[in-house]
Write a structure and sequence with these properties.
The complex is a heterodimer of chains A (about 270) and B (about 325).
Chain A (H helix, E strand, L loop, with lengths): L12 H5 L5 E12 L2 E12 L3 E5 L6 H8 L7 E6 L2 E2 L5 H7 L1 E3 L12 H7 L9 H5 L3 H20 L15 H14 L4 E5 L7 H16 L3 E5 L3 H7 L2 E6 L2 E6 L1 H6 L1 H8 L4
Helix pairs in contact in A: 4-6, 4-7, 6-7
Chain B lengths: L1 H24 L3 H26 L7 H17 L5 H23 L6 H19 L1 H4 L5 E2 L3 E3 L2 E3 L1 H24 L2 H11 L1 H6 L4 H27 L1 E2 L6 H14 L4 H17 L7 H15 L4 H8 L7
Antiparallel strand pairs in B: 1-4, 2-3
Helix pairs in contact in B: 1-7, 2-7, 2-10, 2-11, 2-12, 3-4, 3-5, 3-10, 4-10, 8-10, 11-12, 11-13
Classes of the chains: A alpha/beta (about 270), B mainly alpha (about 325).
């Protein structure tokens, strides 16, 4: 794998050795309040294309809210989100998906009324003929492309390590496998930017390491990844850059080494003397 | 794909075979008539199941769409002398537009707003049919001309049985096709998780509107043909209780199962005939069946039976 040795502890190797890509996502002065409570306040940061960019912070720091703002699930109270240079603030998720943004969910959002393979095939939605008449009358072109989508979905499931669940009903799969199923479904849409919301939450150490490998493999194909994760070993191991949040605001940003050494970050996690 | 294709063809052939041999076991036109009514209900239920079973949206006004189709045929052919096929198509277009106009604003919202709105439509349609007695004959209903096309007149139970049989097979075929297509998966995804469907590019509002329109049009077409078959239509065919009956058929037969919808429609059409003692308590029996289904067999009759069969992965 052509990944960089981000675990190398010599300072700043990552930022200097890697060519930093152009910005794919820019968040400018973003804020969102819920009934007077500021979940995200005046937050600005940039994600470079090709990076694995992690968002960390203690519980309630606003990580998932940030994801929901970026992916259009919530509308911002203020500020802008720029994706690929275009202002996409508050744009519906399905439009963002068409522009090349997809995500997974912290609390699983699986189509439990379908098979695992069909879940991933839904991810091919944007690449298929989704019109009514061809579907009703089963146009040959639709059937052919559907068959290709099925093969592609099976291939993706294999790539994330789910080959033994290809024929399974989603409802019959264990938690760890469903986490991967979400990743496979998101990948099926061929995103440029993939947001992963705690992909390792609830997984054991082995599963967590496997997810780690999956993420690196995906990133190696050129997909930019924004990762929210509590597993610090994973975050420090695979991230190119890290943005640390606390109470909806930016706490620190930099390479894993920089952020790990930042006094404010340590204070936010461990609690500091005032 | 093979197993699905296999399942689809097997089911369609089985349905076709049952329809083909059934008349041999029906001693007279009385039974044939019941079979025809079951067929009409089944056509509506297959469409309604696309909405309820697959897309997870509730309509409590489908009898209203059935009624508009029926009265479009009754009025346009009887009063204005239109050719029946043109009246049928006009009814279908009107119902499609109405469904679109109602669903468009409402389906952007989440939750059970559609159920409430459709409840309203059903009631309004039924009131209009009762009060506009100049055109519709009011509560007593109206006579409907026979269906004539290319100089042929569809007449009698024997002919109508085959018309409805072919229609039902066709509608089931369309439904199975739709479900196993990208659009069908999008519909089921809407049911499974709207937000997850959205983030892979599914315009959930669009598909909810679309399936609502499709299911309403199925009901309208069935209503038009039903009107020509019976020759007499009343507003009762469009009222709230009829809508509930249709929902009960879908839920009882099996949500998200096309053949389940057919079975539900057939069983619940036969039941009142078999239990004529319950004539006066029909609504109560229907409500009881709906509740018992939800409690004891939430997946519905056919999926529950299919789950009992070993080694059959997909029903």
């Amino acid at each position: 794998m052509k990944m960089l040795a981000t675990t190398d502890l010599s300072p700043d190797t990552t930022s200097q050795a890697r060519r930093v890509g152009p910005p794919i996502l820019k968040v400018e002065h973003l804020s969102r309040e819920f009934g007077g409570v500021l979940a995200i306040g005046d937050l600005s940061f940039t994600v470079a294309a090709g990076d694995i960019h992690s968002i960390i912070g203690p519980n309630g720091a606003g990580k998932t809210t940030l994801f929901n703002l970026v992916t259009g699930v919530y509308k911002p109270s203020g500020g802008r989100v720029l994706f690929d240079g275009a202002d996409v603030s508050g744009m519906a998720p399905y439009r963002l998906a068409a522009r090349g943004m997809s995500r997974t969910f912290q609390n699983l959002q699986i189509f439990f009324n379908m098979t695992a393979l069909e879940n991933v095939m839904v991810g091919r939605h944007l690449h298929l003929n989704t019109r009514l008449l061809p579907a009703l009358f089963r146009f040959p072109s639709l059937v052919r492309k559907d068959r290709e989508a099925k093969d592609r979905a099976a291939q993706l499931m294999t790539e994330v390590g789910l080959e033994k669940y290809i024929d399974a009903d989603a409802a019959a799969m264990p938690y760890g496998a469903l986490k991967r199923l979400e990743i496979a479904r998101a990948l099926a849409s061929e995103p440029k930017l993939l947001l992963l919301d705690e992909p390792a939450a609830g997984l054991n150490a082995t599963e967590s390491r496997e997810i780690d490998e999956v993420i690196k493999t995906v990133a190696a194909t050129g997909v930019t990844i924004i990762l929210v994760e509590h597993d610090m070993k994973m975050v420090m191991g695979i991230s190119h850059r890290i943005t640390a949040l606390n109470q909806g605001r930016m706490l620190a940003e930099g390479t894993p080494q920089e952020v790990a050494a930042n006094a404010d970050v340590i204070a936010a996690y461990l609690g500091a003397a005032p | 794909m093979n197993t699905l294709l296999h399942g689809r063809l097997t089911g369609l052939l089985a349905l076709g075979a049952v329809i083909a041999v059934l008349p041999a076991f029906l001693p007279n036109n009385f039974y044939l008539d019941i079979a025809i009514l079951a067929g009409f209900n089944a056509v509506v239920c297959v469409g309604l199941n696309l909405l309820i079973g697959y897309a997870g949206q509730i309509s409590l006004g489908h009898a209203g769409f059935f009624g508009i189709g029926a009265y479009a045929s009754g009025v346009l052919v009887g009063v204005y002398g239109w050719p029946p096929i043109l009246a049928l198509l006009t009814g279908a277009v009107v119902v499609g537009l109405l469904a679109f106009l109602v669903a468009k604003p409402i389906l952007r919202l989440k939750g059970h707003y559609l159920a409430m709105a459709t409840l309203g439509i059903g009631i309004i349609v039924s009131i209009v049919l009762r009060t506009e007695s100049g055109l519709t004959g009011g509560p007593d209903g109206m006579m409907v001309e026979p269906f004539k096309i290319f100089g042929f007149e569809l007449y009698g139970e024997k002919v109508w049985y085959w018309v409805v049989g072919v229609l039902l097979v066709g509608v089931v075929w369309l439904s199975l096709n739709l479900i196993d297509s990208p659009m069908g998966r999008a519909l089921r995804a809407v049911h499974g998780s709207e937000v997850a469907a959205e983030v892979v590019g599914v315009d959930t509002a669009r598909f909810k509107v679309l399936v609502f329109v499709v299911s309403a049009v199925f009901a309208s077409v069935a209503g038009s043909l039903f009107a020509h078959y019976t020759g007499l239509i009343t507003p009762a065919k469009a009222d709230f209780f009829k809508s509930i009956e249709l929902v009960t058929m879908v839920v009882f037969g099996g949500m998200a199962s096309t053949f389940g919808a057919v079975v539900g429609a057939v069983v619940l059409t036969l039941l009142p005939q078999a239990l004529t003692v319950f004539q006066d308590y029909q609504q109560i029996v229907l409500g009881g069946i709906l509740m018992a289904t939800m409690v004891f067999m939430p997946k519905g009759l056919l999926p529950t039976l299919a789950a009992l069969l070993p080694a059959r992965r997909r029903a």
